[in-house]
Every structure is written in C-alpha cells, then in structure tokens.
Design brief:
Layout lengths: L4 E4 L4 E4 L3 E2 L8 H16 L4 E3 L8 H10 L7 E6 L1 E2 L8 E2 L3 H15 L4 E6 L8 H13 L3 E7 L3 H8 L4 E5 L10 H10 L2 E2 L10 H14 L3 H12 L12 H9 L7 H8 L11
Parallel strand pairs: 3-4, 4-5, 5-8, 8-9, 9-10, 10-11
Antiparallel strand pairs: 1-2, 6-7
Helix pairs in contact: 1-2, 1-9, 7-8
Length: 285
C-alpha cells in the first residue's frame, strides 16, 4: 500500500498514513466527554501521529478536549486545526468568515486552547467568497512570520483555487471530501500528488448503492477485513499522498479503522474497487 508515512513540507514533518479526525468526539456531558478523552488517548497509543480538529467543532471545545486528553503532546504528534468559519452570521449562526481579524482571533484562541506556542499545521477551513483570497492567505502568511503558525493547508478547494493559493503561500496539505464512492475531487488529488502536497480526505468512508456495497463486501470477504477497512485500504493504495482522517467516538471503531493500514489489496481488487466511484467527467467540481 505504499509508504507507512507521509512527509509534510518536503519531509520536514513525517506522519503516519492514517490520522484521526476528532470532529465526532462529544465534549459534554461528563460521561460522553470521558469516553471522548479515552478515544483520543487510544488513538495516540495505537500510533496515530496526526489528529485533526477545528474551531468550528464546538467553537473551540474540541480543541480544548484534545489538549485535556493529550497534553503534553508526544514529540511525534501533529495536532492540526482549522480556522475561517465563525458565529458571525446575522443571527449569530456559523458562516464562512475569512476576514483578517477573525482568522487572527481564531488562531490566538487555538494557541490558548491547545496549550501551544505555535500551530504546526493550520488549515483554512473554507475559502470565504466575500473576502479576497489574498487577504485571507496573506493574514495566515503573516501569522507564519510571527511564529504562531508553522505550515499552511486548505480545505474544500478546487484545482484552480489550489493553484491561486500556491501563488500566495506554500500549501502543504489539502483536506477535501473524498472516498471510494465519492471521487468528485479526483483532479484535486492529482494536483496534490504532482506537487507533493498531502491530501487528507474527510469523510473517507461512505456507504453506496446496494451493488457497490456488494462489491466492497466481496473484497472484504476475500481479504478477511471489514468493508470499512477495505475502503480505507483502497484510499491508502490509491495515492501515496493520501492521509485519511477517519473519525469516531468509539474505541472499537477506532481500532477497526487503524487496522486498515495492515490490509493488503491485490491489483485486481484495487481495480474492481476503483470502478465503483470513478468520476464521470474530468471536471474538478
């Protein structure tokens, strides 16, 4: 399935090929929070070296949860967060907001909540169409220069948006929705692979139609794995820059997900699976 690690920033940071998405971890009430802490700690015990969170996840509550669970962080652990979505809508609802003052405030909040001096990988959660891209990324570049941010990534971007962003900043990661059955962003993945940019699929496992599930189930039966493990193993084999970040609030599901790194798919199985969600056109969506 390719290398067991992937290097960010020209290999300066190396992380395991399977990360953990913390979005689904409840932060309250107490019993749920206790289970969330246990899941986060178990992920690191099992060798996860990249954990993904965001300001959007509970308005920073998810960041605080991870700090409670994992601080002081192991030397090889990369906790990445995302900014650019804020409760600044007319009624206080969440909306895309990439204004410089919002991005700066959310980074400062992340530093405090995560208990760090620098966010080693910060991703723009979404591009705000109402704020010039140069302002959004220029602010993040300034935060880099100030030492508050190490490396920069993007989320839910097109090929063109990625190209525009790379004219402004050095992009080391892209986090788009992508899985075996939902490959709208295949061109973005190809662009990342060509540039050596990490591609972190969110929602890396998704159910499909009955026929598609049957094919996945057949491969699972052949390999002795589960359908979820097959879907994750396909992602790992599909491109060397893919770093899935499956999320769960259950330790048994966490262990199932991470065991996918050891599931070997044959070229024939990979080909059969690849036909399930192949894009119907070359557009990048």
């Amino acid at each position: 399935m390719g290398s067991s690690t992937f290097g960010f920033d020209g290999g300066a940071i190396r992380v395991g090929r399977l990360g953990f998405g913390a979005m689904h971890l409840p932060t309250e009430p107490a019993a749920d929070r206790s289970r969330s802490l246990a899941v986060a700690r178990r992920a690191v015990e099992l060798g996860v070296t990249l954990v993904d969170t965001a300001h959007l996840y509970g308005g920073g509550a998810n960041e605080e949860l991870l700090a409670e669970a994992l601080y002081p962080y192991p030397d090889d652990l990369l906790v990445t967060t995302k900014v650019g979505v804020a409760r600044t809508g007319p009624g206080g609802e969440w909306r895309l907001d990439g204004r410089p003052e919002i991005l700066r405030d959310q980074v400062d909040q992340a530093l405090r909540r995560l208990r760090v001096d620098r966010v080693e990988l910060l991703q723009l959660h979404r591009i705000d169409p109402e704020t010039p891209l140069a302002e959004q990324l220029g602010t993040l570049r300034e935060l880099q220069a100030e030492g508050k941010v190490g490396r920069l990534g993007l989320s839910e971007v097109t090929v063109d948006e990625l190209a525009q962003a790379r004219e402004i900043v050095d992009v080391v990661s892209v986090q788009n929705r992508y899985n075996l059955l939902d490959r709208e962003h295949e061109p973005v993945l190809a662009a990342c692979e060509a540039a050596g940019i990490g591609f972190l699929p969110w929602r890396p496992v998704a159910a499909g139609t009955a026929g598609e599930r049957a094919e996945i189930a057949a491969v699972a039966a052949e390999t002795g794995g589960t359908p979820t493990q097959v879907a994750l193993a396909w992602l790992l084999a599909h491109s060397p820059v893919v770093l899935p970040i499956p999320g769960t609030a259950r330790i048994d599901h966490l262990e199932e997900n991470l065991a996918a790194a050891n599931l070997h798919l044959t070229p024939s199985q990979l080909d059969r699976l690849s036909t399930l969600g192949a894009p119907s056109s070359p557009t990048d969506g």
